[in-house]
Amino acid sequence: MVYPIGVFFAAVLPDVEIAGIKLNPGPFTVKEHALISIIANAAGGLPTGVDNVVGQRWKIFMGDRNINFWNSIQWVLSTQFIGYGVAGLTRRFLIKPAAMLWPGVLPTVALLNSFHEKKEDQENISSRYTMSRFNFFWIVLSFIFMYEWFPLYFAPFLATISIACWFGNSRTMKILGSSSKGEGTGLLALTFDWSVVSGQVPLATPFWASLNYFGGYAFWTWIVGPIVYYTNPFGVKGGYLSQAQSGWGTANKTTDPFPYINSVDIFDKEGNIVPIQQPLLQPDLTLNQSYYDTSKPFHLSPAFAIAYFTSFINITALFAHVGLWYGKDIYKQAKEAFQQLENTDEDPLNVRMRQYKDVPDWFYIGYLAIFSVVLLISGLFTAFKMKWWATIFAIVLGVVYTIPIGIIQGISGQQMGINVLTEFLIGLIIPGDIIGVMCFKSLGYNLVVQALALSSDLKMGHYMAIGPIYMFIAQSIGTFIGAVCNNAIAIWAEEGLAEQFANNKNQWDPTPSYGTFTNAGGIWGAIGPARFFGPDSPYFSLMSGFIIGIVVPFVPWLCNKLYPSKNWHLFNLPLLTQQNYTAANQAFIVVPFLLNFIFNKLIFKYKNEWWTKYNFIMSIALDSGTAFAILVITLIQFAITDPLPNNFFNPATADYYCLERNFTQ
């Protein structure tokens, strides 16, 4: 919608000045379009700090009524903005090197250029594919807009097709095949809903990165997960199977026998779900030691345990992989930065960007310092309680991890997270302090996320020849709007739906992400890593992941020394262990990988001219058309209260023919 509105205003606004600013500076340009897109994207993201607001304030979680709009907006804004200071200080390592492609921004760059491509430029391009990228975009957008009405409205069955469930009615098939949130492993499950597929960015992710991610998912979810479930290495009382037959972890153990192989809940020794509130927590939100002693050992679902194991591997593998393969480049960039040397091996993009005034380092340092002070004040005087040293520690941790995570994202398009690392470290230091742990996690984790968000936009500015100052301003405006609006919605939604939450506490889950965030606070904060993963815990063996993450990256690196090949570095352990899927819809993996293989392997190789011209345009057109369809369908559902009649493609329940309760043993 930005393009037609921009063209319209360029045509109708008068050519006058207001306070020295031209109301209509001329035709709507690609740079203006890019800046507006950045503002919209930044405003549309959900701030991690809102997780703290929801987890601490909402009655279905902790119910702390001391949190109001003003102290929560202070927290959300400061956790959003502090990362931008770090982004500026790391731009020499993440933006300027030519190897840092940032694949995630390429579809947007291609789309913007197609909208503003001049007719004579299109005619001068020698190609057998004569359709303009502009027309191609609108054709694809129109098609996906009409198609998405089926999986999103008329035929929800298409959104999740659990193939394994069709091969038998046994418990094993249900466990392996179910792809519903929080239940099965989704073995070979398919989705024909682009709103699910698009999360993996299949048309923009390099094939080698997609192969690493898919291979890791298949190994950990479809092979290791069932092995853990059936062998019970963590000593669940009677084993997962016997607990499943009695309805382990359900509100009604006599009528709901589905086993919890994939859940983010915490379970006590009897298999009951432990909510992150009283009696686990005392009124001051610290651990109730007597309840813990009588209910331990606490357990995780197999998928949740594996997710933490792979996170432990990922934490150390990031540094090992980046250090081995990119250490020399990092050292070179650091040396040039500290010695104020000119890079004599810069690519043409860097040379072109020299014409624009850069944001000085002192500004980024000041930005980082100001929001560090705001966070210190917030931690000491608001409900988002953190010790002063914990605030500084979280900031330092985020700064340290920004470069290695940024390098992985810059070359692959996939972003890692340090959420588990932050929880683990602070949980060891302040066990029992759930609020301190949750706040530390949000600050450290979100600092990296926001630093890389600005880094991504700065790289986009490189591609679009837009000055860094304007990219920074656009990102900041969008972030401010998004933080204020999301925080207000979080407060309003709980107030407006308080009665519904109270009446449906056990049946309604607002979103899996908030439940995951709060339950993680219970594991790492209330209980603490020393209790949950210490030597006396059934999950102590998971700690070996830290050692594995250090050792395994040396294998392909040494193989490359002995048998040199350009492909050894593509074995990427951080991507192989990026398993942030617990409790998500498990149908999100197969179709995106197949599409990635078709477009970024086969078409890239055999129809490269078509791929170069249309691939990224198709990616953004599919996303845009789907977003528009979701908006229209949502508005219609508000207006039409009567549901569609049930049929094969619109089943009465959300199990998609995979969770019937009459299955055989």
Automatic annotation (TrEMBL):
<feature type="transmembrane region" description="Helical">
    <location>
        <begin position="616"/>
        <end position="640"/>
    </location>
</feature>
<feature type="transmembrane region" description="Helical">
    <location>
        <begin position="469"/>
        <end position="493"/>
    </location>
</feature>
<feature type="transmembrane region" description="Helical">
    <location>
        <begin position="388"/>
        <end position="412"/>
    </location>
</feature>
<keyword id="KW-0812">Transmembrane</keyword>
<dbReference type="GO" id="GO:0015031">
    <property type="term" value="P:protein transport"/>
</dbReference>
<keyword id="KW-0571">Peptide transport</keyword>
<dbReference type="InterPro" id="IPR004813">
    <property type="entry name" value="OPT"/>
</dbReference>
<keyword id="KW-0472">Membrane</keyword>
<feature type="transmembrane region" description="Helical">
    <location>
        <begin position="583"/>
        <end position="604"/>
    </location>
</feature>
<dbReference type="GO" id="GO:0016020">
    <property type="term" value="C:membrane"/>
</dbReference>
<dbReference type="InterPro" id="IPR004648">
    <property type="entry name" value="Oligpept_transpt"/>
</dbReference>
<feature type="transmembrane region" description="Helical">
    <location>
        <begin position="362"/>
        <end position="381"/>
    </location>
</feature>
<comment type="similarity">
    <text>Belongs to the oligopeptide OPT transporter family.</text>
</comment>
<keyword id="KW-1133">Transmembrane helix</keyword>
<protein>
    <recommendedName>
        <fullName>Oligopeptide transporter</fullName>
    </recommendedName>
</protein>
<feature type="transmembrane region" description="Helical">
    <location>
        <begin position="136"/>
        <end position="167"/>
    </location>
</feature>
<dbReference type="GO" id="GO:0035673">
    <property type="term" value="F:oligopeptide transmembrane transporter activity"/>
</dbReference>
<dbReference type="Pfam" id="PF03169">
    <property type="entry name" value="OPT"/>
</dbReference>
<keyword id="KW-0813">Transport</keyword>
<feature type="transmembrane region" description="Helical">
    <location>
        <begin position="305"/>
        <end position="326"/>
    </location>
</feature>
<keyword id="KW-0653">Protein transport</keyword>
<feature type="transmembrane region" description="Helical">
    <location>
        <begin position="214"/>
        <end position="231"/>
    </location>
</feature>
<feature type="transmembrane region" description="Helical">
    <location>
        <begin position="424"/>
        <end position="448"/>
    </location>
</feature>
<feature type="transmembrane region" description="Helical">
    <location>
        <begin position="540"/>
        <end position="563"/>
    </location>
</feature>
